[in-house]
Design goal:
alpha/beta, 7-stranded parallel β-sheet, 9 strands, single chain, 36% helix
């Protein structure tokens, strides 16, 4: 673990902040090509300063840019590297959607987030964090035999090329001065949900043809390629997904965590605040060489937990793992997709209550 420069039980964001309407309008103008990229970045810079300031005012020890330059935490990366298009019809949570799919070769392996990271580092007064998607997440959701086999014959072929591409990206973030680089992988928790394992889940994109015992070592190797040699602290985030205040996945982390012992990251971030996510006892399964990020803030329900309610979850976490290995965060990003319903005020109040709870815990 490399978090010795941070206070004990440090607080950090997991990913996105909700976008105010003005930010949504600016994203729409850019997507509709009504403004230039230069003008978009100039105007978005001012909004990012607000996102940073909001987290610092709440008392966070680590801050992000809120992912406000991205309309979606995953799809923005795909748009920038190429080889993916929004053309596939799928069923998800009982509704039909047109979603992204791999339908070509990745067009660039050059870093695409460097300027975003440098702006965050320049303007933040606290430690900084930047998130990247996991190769397994992208391949599991976006490799499709009807679209992808011409370019990547198997799902794992896409995993390996993404690992190479993301390793270059992570190195650039490291060189830009980012303190924590997080790999987002909500797809790993598919193996924690009996419905997904049986193939009866509500997402037609997901087909876990390979068992957890065969797929996880490949995924671990891919993530290790990304984190190798980085000076920054590295995290992996395993959430249960968020869509319109609902989770895609349920189940504890116990089927997954024992298989991550060879993973070369400093911290595993898990969820404990929302129902049907992790069980506090899962913390005992985290490999001894890694720290734990405990999600103690529910980002899905609109109700704002009190400081006392958050403190109760945090104390339970401390009963399972040593304080020197523990940090605290929200369960997940507040708005992985720009159109998610939480408001900025809701996110601010939840972050502030979390930081107040941790201050009491330290005292």
């Amino acid at each position: 673990m490399k978090s010795s420069k941070l206070p004990p039980l440090f607080t950090h964001p997991i990913g996105s902040l909700p976008r105010p309407q003005a930010v949504l309008d600016l994203l729409a103008e850019w997507q509709e090509k009504k403004i230039s990229k230069k003008e978009f970045n100039k105007r978005m810079d001012d909004f990012i300063l607000f996102a940073i300031g909001l987290q610092e005012q709440a008392g966070m020890d680590v801050v992000s840019d809120g992912e406000w330059r991205r309309s979606h935490y995953l799809n923005e990366y795909l748009m920038r590297i190429g080889g993916f298009a929004k053309i596939r019809q799928v069923e998800h949570q009982g509704a039909s959607h047109v979603t992204w799919v791999c339908n070509g070769k990745i067009r660039t392996k050059k870093p695409v987030f460097t300027a975003d990271a440098k702006f965050l580092v320049k303007h933040a007064h606290k430690a900084t964090k930047f998130a990247l998607p996991s190769p397994f997440l992208v391949a599991t959701r976006l490799w499709d035999k009807n679209y992808s086999t011409k370019y990547y014959p198997t799902k794992n072929d896409l995993v390996f090329e993404l690992a190479e591409t993301l390793a270059t990206e992570a190195k650039a973030l490291d060189e830009a001065g980012i303190d924590i680089i997080q790999i987002d992988d909500p797809a790993l928790t598919y193996y924690c949900d009996p419905d997904f394992v049986k193939g009866t889940a509500h997402d037609s994109r997901i087909n876990l043809e390979e068992s957890i015992e065969t797929q996880i070592p490949i995924t671990v190797d891919a993530i290790n390629k990304i984190t190798e040699g980085l000076k920054a602290e590295t995290h992996i985030h395993c959430c249960h997904s968020v869509s319109k205040r609902r989770s895609d996945v349920k189940g504890s982390y116990k089927p997954l965590l024992p298989l991550l012992s060879n993973l070369k990251v400093d911290r595993i971030n898990l969820e404990f605040a929302y129902r049907d996510t992790g069980e506090i006892s899962d913390l005992t399964e985290i490999p001894a060489n890694m720290g734990a990020g405990a999600g103690v803030v529910d980002v899905r329900q609109s109700a704002i937990q009190t400081t006392e309610e958050i403190l109760e979850i945090a104390k339970k976490c401390l009963s399972q793992i040593d304080a020197s290995r523990l940090s605290f965060s929200p369960d997940c990003g507040f708005a992985p997709d720009a159109g998610e319903p939480p408001t900025v005020d809701e996110a601010y109040n939840k972050l502030k209550n979390m930081c107040d709870a941790v201050k009491q815990l330290r005292a």
